[in-house]
Amino acid sequence: MALNMCSLPQASTVRVRAPKFCMMTLTHSSKGVTTLKKPNSPKLEMPETQVTHSMPPEKLEIFKSLESWAEENVLMHLKPVEKCWQPQDFLPQPNSEEFYDQIKELQARAKEVPDDHYVVLVGHMVTEEALPTYQTMLNITDGIKDGTGASPTPWATWTRAWTAEENRHGNLLNKYLYLTGRVDMRAFEKTIQYLIGSGMNPKAENNPYLAFVYTSFQERATAISHGNAARLTKQHGDLKLAQICGLIAADEKRHEAGYSKIVKKLFEIDPDTTMLAFADMMRKKIAMPAHLMYDGSDDCLFDHFAAAASRLGVYSARDYADVMQFLVDYWEVEKVTSPSSEGRKAQEYVCGLPSRIKMIEQRASERAKDNNATSVAFSWVYDRNV
Ligand SMILES: [Fe+2]
Ligand SMILES: [Fe+2]
């Protein structure tokens, strides 16, 4: 999954995170060392009065009644394990005589890739590695949660198999980046530990309508991010790494197909609730999964990472608007007949939003061109400025 509580995702260019979103639990000692008052507490961005379990209990029946449909139409977007690629397919073989030569070749290719690109790749990898959080999000969602840990419902089957497929992404990027010798492993390992400890807050209210809108959006956004990373890596000549990013992007697309199909079905059988859910998630703005990332020193690490991704054209507000437009078209939102006036207002809002976002983005990027983008030191690349 890719990356903003604050707003238009990793999109933001030189935006500085609003103080309330920066790490409020941080304190700076006289020596300038940053410590956490409560090092293992989640850095919650929302008050505890946040809405939870907002789906009316009678709607649980809808998800129960969709089980046979999901069995047939959603699970087909998973791949059998035996047909899946595994991280080792793209890494030097430790039992081969050529192991050390393969590492030398890998490191020679890695030299050609600039630091800002590694920052984006590490950001992707850190996001992927916080997978326990994402599985938790699905398993606290009413109507689809895995009630036993090995429940046979198609919803639970999907969640476990999706997690298992996703698990290969962080694993491969982590191992590959380690072998490049270009990134500070300890710094990003710490970032992963902080991030998993912090969790995330997509404001999906344990509500499957909201959760599936979120995951549809998120998987497509992530596919775009990894796809653009692949394109850039190819330009820098590391074809193996480009292939890795491309394969991950393809998995994300497949997952997007599953999630967005569920929302399409919900539009068909319960158009009003689904319309309101879509508009609700868009008003709240899609929080990227790693929006709480922290490395122990940079209070606004996510924003800095997002700005780097935007500058490189890996993911920007324009992509956010494109994802939205795609979903509006795919779900045929304009054609949906919403029975309530609230539903019709929501429909008008979501249909007009992509073009409004693009207009705002256009103005913001013109302003950004006038300002000199400030470079920032990233612990992930040994505190070099990016
Ligand atoms: Fe994903
Ligand atoms: Fe992924």
Explain the overall architecture.
With 386 residues, the chain is mostly helical. The chain has a single domain (67-92, 102-368), classed as Ribonucleotide Reductase, subunit A, CATH 1.10.620.20. The protein has helices at residues 60-65, 67-73, 99-110, 115-129, 131-139, 154-180, 185-198, 208-235, 239-269, 271-284, 301-312, 317-330, 341-370, and strands at residues 26-28, 34-36, 377-378, 384-385. The chain has a two-stranded antiparallel ribbon. It has a two-stranded antiparallel ribbon with strand order 3-4. Strand 1 (26-28) and strand 2 form a beta hairpin. Helix 12 (317-330) runs antiparallel to helix 13 (341-370). The radius of gyration is 21 Å and the shape is globular. The structure holds fe (ii) ion (2 copies).
List key phrases describing it.
globular; mainly alpha; 386 residues; 13 helices; 57% helix; single chain; two-stranded antiparallel ribbon; Ribonucleotide Reductase, subunit A; binds fe (ii) ion
Report the helical percentage: 55-70%
Could you describe the largest sheet, including whether it forms a barrel?
Answer: 2 strands, antiparallel
- Give unreliable regions as ranges: 1-35
CATH class: Mainly Alpha
Main sheet strand line-up: 1-2
Number of domains: 1
* CATH fold description: Ribonucleotide Reductase, subunit A
CATH architecture descriptor name? Orthogonal Bundle
Number of helices: 13
Strand % is: under 5%
Q: What Rg, in angstroms, do the CA atoms define?
A: 21 Å
